[in-house]
Amino acid sequence: MHTYYALMAAALLSLIGISMNQAHFLSTLLSLETMTLILFLLMALPPLCWTNMVLTPMLMMSMCACEAGAGLTLMTVTTRKHANDQLANLNLLKC
Question: Cα dist. 65→2, 22, 85, 93 in Å?
């Protein structure tokens, strides 16, 4: 039970990190990755008791890997195009 409280507190701190530290694209991506890791851990703990949910954390981890790859690709493209990774200087609505 204490594990769930610790993971929920870590998720809350990650959410606060996203809302407070919006200066750089990389720090936002790291906070998002922390949230997906915490979500994976929250999904991986119940299958220890119930065996019908064993494949769910593996599916979540594959989606997290795809999200991380897409995030790093977006960061690389925007850094090459705008010469920095600061979110304040980006106008992502341009074509």
Answer: 28, 22, 21, 26
